[in-house]
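Small ribosomal subunit protein uS19 structure dump, as promised
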Amino acid sequence: MSRSLYKGPYIDEKLLKKIAGKKPGESGIIKTWSRDSVIAPEMVGFTFGVHNGKDHIPVVVAEEMVGHRLGEFSPTKKFHRHGGKMQKELEQKKKEAEITAAKAAKTTTAAKK
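C-alpha cells r here:
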C-alpha cells in the first residue's frame, strides 16, 4: 500500500544530509540501513551501501530506480539453487554437450583453413 499523497514519499533525512552538496562520482559508497527510503531524483548516480541484515550491498542508483525503495535492490535472502542429484546430472550433461559442440565447431573451422 502506498503512502498518502499529502505526506509525500518517505526519504530518510540522514540520507539526504549525506548526499547534500556532493557530486555523484566523488563520494564513494554511502552506507545506509534505511531500506524503506524511496529513491529520489537527487540520488541518481550515487552508490549506496544498503544493509541486508548481514552486510552492505552496493547499489548504484539509475534513473529507472526513482520511485522504488532502496531495499528492493538489496536482497535479504541468498538463493541456493534447486534440485539435488538430478539437477547436478542435468548440469553435467549440459556442460558435456557444450564441450562437444565447441570441439565440433573448432574442427570445422580448422578444416576450412
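The chain has a mean pLDDT of 89.
lmk if u need the other ones
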